[in-house]
Amino acid sequence: MKQERILFVTGKLAEYSLREILEKLAPQAGFAYDITVLNVQVAALMHVPLVKRRLTVPAGIDWVMLPGLCKGDLQILTDHFGLPFKRGPKDHFDLPEYFGQEGRPPKDLSRFDIEILAEINHAPFLSDAEILQQAEHYRQNGANLIDVGCVPGESWSRAGEVVRMLVDAGHRVSIDSFEQQEVEAAVENGAELILSCNHTNLDWVSKLGVEVVAIPDIPSDFDSLCDVVDQLVRTETPFRIDPILEPIGYGFAASLERYYRARREFPEFEIMMGIGNLTELTEVDTAGINFLLAALCQELKIHSVLATEVINWARSAIREFDYARRMVKYAIDSKSLPKHIHYQLVLLRDAKLNEMGQAALKNLSQQIRDPNYRIFAEQDELHVMNRDGYWKGTDPYQLFDQFQAANPKELDAAHAFYLGYEMSKAVTALTLGKQYQQDQPLNWGFLSQAEISALERRRDQGAGEQCGPR
Question: Is pLDDT above 80 for 384?
Fold first, then answer.
């Protein structure tokens, strides 16, 4: 069977490392290849009109791969050359992964089993505009139901009015209160769930005709929860169970055991978990906590969670849990590890690092013939190079002094600002173990922010093919 032959198009400075990669990859992936180096220094500066003008396709090529950052409509090239053109990954170091995944459908993360209740904490202290804004923020980030959190020990006369406002805005709403007037007003205005019910309010809350969350009188008293459940069953009150997740240091492990016990003893009833007691009360980034709790809920068939975003380190907790519930659903349904699904919850560090290596960096530094600085972050050092030299070290201030001394007239204010910005990103990448690529934003998972690179700004301004502002 004839191997397909792929033409890889690149720029001058990437040729060396691309050849190294393809020498190993092609036999493994089962393709033959040619490499064409266009007369452009930086592959990321390619665009369709430039490729159309400069590219010559050798005979016997089945399709052409362009750099992932190449701009423009590839159909123009396909029509012009008469064979398919595709974009590769943004970084050619990712080619092994690209060919490993080629032809495989993307993971289906549309499905989930766990409903998110997002609490508006201390709603009586907020304006209507703030309440609506917070509710919409939660909905946009994956919440299925908005929980109106009241203030314990106080009575809020506007509970019903605010619930109606949220319902009219298209939200499903629950009320979080033990105060009878607040709860009754909320239910009259469209609240579909009451948080919560134990022996202190069972006599009247069970008469309101909506679903309640059954909880123990005190978290450790599982028998009281069982008694509440028995009475709710007798009165035919719809309910779900929450054995109460307790904070670390206050019975966390024992509370997990109660969730297992609840699932064993009540296999037919719905269970809810209030996850804020862990995310809000544990001084650690919340994405990992949310994922582990989502996995626990998925395995125990806990189909709803109450989440909050009060403290700053939990400010993205709703969206984190939304990603987590989809990932655990996929992993458990497909009987596979929750790995290589997607990287949206890998926030602090990157899933992998691509490094050119010292030999490739040295080779690259010897090829550069222009004054533009190339910056790399690998081997625990910053690497900066242009036609005047190659500098490396850990202190960006010292590096700046060194390459400025080599050609002090080259740096205007705009270029110095650009280099400072890029080296700041590079130091961050080294510190955290992230991939740094000049003129590209760092990857922060779902928190990543798009940015217009210096390359794109120059290209839009018609300033040619240089790397970085001049």
Answer: yes
Backbone angles phi, psi at 442, to 5 degrees: -70, 150
207, two tokens: 């008469």
CB–CB of 299/271 below 8 Å?
no
What would the CATH number be for the domain defined by 115-333? Answer: 3.20.20.20
pTM above 0.90, yes or no: no
Q: Phi then psi for 98, rounded to 5 degrees?
A: -60, -50
Q: What SS3 state is found at 6?
A: strand
> Cβ atoms within 10 A of the Cβ of 54, count?
13
* CATH architecture, domain defined by 5-101: 3-Layer(aba) Sandwich (3.40)
pLDDT in tens, 169-185: 999 999 999 999 999 99
Q: Residue 437, SS3? A: coil
Question: What whole-number distance in Å separates Cα of residue 314 and Cα of residue 145?
Answer: 18
Could you tell me if 431 and 394 are in contact, meaning their C-beta atoms sit under 8 angstroms apart?
A: no
Burial of 281: CB neighbours in 10 Å, binned 0-12, 13-18, 19+: middle
| Residue 54 CA: distances (Å) to CA of 6, 10, 48, 153, 436 | 18, 12, 10, 75, 30
CA distance 133 to 138: 9
* CATH 3.40.50 domain locations along the chain: 5-101
Measured distance CA(35)–CA(180) in Å, rounded: 75
Strands (E) located in 58-179: 63-66, 85-87, 115-120, 145-149, 173-176
Q: How far apart are CA 343 and CA 435, in angstroms?
A: 13
Distance CA 415, CA 384 (A): 14
Question: Can you tell me the distance from the alpha carbon of 81 to that of 347, in angstroms, rounded to the nearest whole number?
Answer: 41
> pLDDT tens across 235-261, in order?
999 999 999 999 999 999 999 999 999
Distance of CA 245 to the CA centre of its chain: 26
d(CA 293, CA 158): 34
Of 308, 170, 150, the closest CA to residue 160 belongs to 150
Angle at 24 between CA 20 and CA 28, to 5 degrees: 155
